[in-house]
Amino acid sequence: MRMICLSVQFLAQYKGVRPLSLAGHVGFDSLPDQLVNKSICQGFCFNILCIGETGIGKSTLMDTLFNTNFENFESSHFEPQVKLRAQTYDLHESNVRLRLTVVNTVGFGDQMNKQESYQPVVDYIDRQFESFLQEELKIKRSLHNYHDSRVHACLYFISPSGHSLKSLDLVTMKKLDSKVNIIPVIAKADTISKSELHKFKIKIMSELVSNGVQIYQFPLDDETVAKVNTAMNGHLPFAVVGSTEEVSVGNKMVKARQYPWGVVQVENESHCDFVKLREMLICINMEDLREQTHTHHYELYRRCKLEEMGFQDTDPECKPVSLQQTYEAKRQEFLVELQKREDEMRQMFVQRVKLKESELKEDERELQSRFEQLKRLHADEKSALEEKKRLLDEDQSSFGKRRAAAQLLQAQSLTANGKKDKDRKNLNSNFFTDW
Ligand SMILES: Nc1nc2c(ncn2[C@@H]2O[C@H](COP(=O)(O)OP(=O)(O)O)[C@@H](O)[C@H]2O)c(=O)[nH]1
Ligand SMILES: [Mg+2]
């Protein structure tokens, strides 16, 4: 049925293509089988992101869903920031190989600041898109053996409060709904009564709608699964119970959680929605989740990124623009921008030189005036010294004169004294002679 549906779509795409009937067997009806064989050979890849607070039951549900024991690291409630831990496993069922990556949010909801909780998740999803885009843009691409790490499904674990969604739940889902297929689940659904669960589901859905949060809707375009998918869309969010413990019920062992008052069977549809989730996520819609991721979420990321880089499909007059034209236009834009910046830098340089020149001139003027001042000071000091020297010379010559006069006087007085002594001696000798 799906094939018929697809072939009608195929023909509708190519208007003007004439349908022709074949006269006999050609063989291209084996194409679907060729595709199946090729896919089986290549194997499949699926990546699940589990978002929910620590201890809400993420690891247990993953173990229960895939019937195995994944590497589980218990984390504390005191992580300084949210980290995303991705583990990749190789799983085999019959002849089908599945490379499964389980990404866990460690420390989600344990921070005071809500942004610190959702931002690492947003960044992680974008990083996976970015590395795929980078691979696509390479000249030598190796997409056939590229490990596609884009998140195909995001299980968002809601706490079974029975009350309403937390603001962190709404903010996170709103931030992610254009990037990933969100499947909300009510965790530990065995801790909430049946009537409360019913009301809680209605409340959650109405809160999601009123806040414009777009969750993943199981697709209805494939007629073979449209009925079951329609019914399942009405059961969202699935109320799940996880356990890998085997408990004996009747004469068989089943996965269950045992309580003093009874047993909650994980795979019993009247106990919880675990089977619905497994059917929808793995058995029916895994391929659609992968396809939606590529054609919807990745496409949006790619478009925004390429537009940001300046690429466009049409010009303002809606005429198609080739990659070459975009490249030329960008190159021209770049050259104009470069020229503009060069001019700006040149102007800036000239201005700076002018400024420096005027600063230097100012310095020179200042130095000149200081030099003049010092010269004046020096001249003043020189003339003061010369005056002092002149005075000193005068003093010295007057002193010389006075000294000469004094010496003359001294000599005269010495001569005069000598004569007096002689006269006195003569007088004395005359006196004695007379006597
Ligand atoms: N009542 C109940 N307990 C659960 C359920 N799933 C897990 N648990 C328990 O919750 C605890 C934390 O589970 P875990 O899977 O490690 O939580 P995680 O931190 O989100 O990975 C464990 O003790 C589990 O046994 C559930 O569906 N119902
Ligand atoms: Mg865990």
TrEMBL record:
One of its GO terms (molecular function) is GTP binding. Keywords: Coiled coil, GTP-binding, Nucleotide-binding. It holds the Pfam family Septin. Residues 413-435 are annotated as: Disordered. Residues 350-394 form a coiled coil. SUPFAM superfamilies: P-loop containing nucleoside triphosphate hydrolases (SSF52540). It comes from the Eukaryota. Residues 42-308 form the Septin-type G domain. Belongs to the TRAFAC class TrmE-Era-EngA-EngB-Septin-like GTPase superfamily. Septin GTPase family. This is Septin. It comes from Cyclopterus lumpus (Lumpsucker). The lineage of its organism: Eukaryota, Metazoa, Chordata, Craniata, Vertebrata.
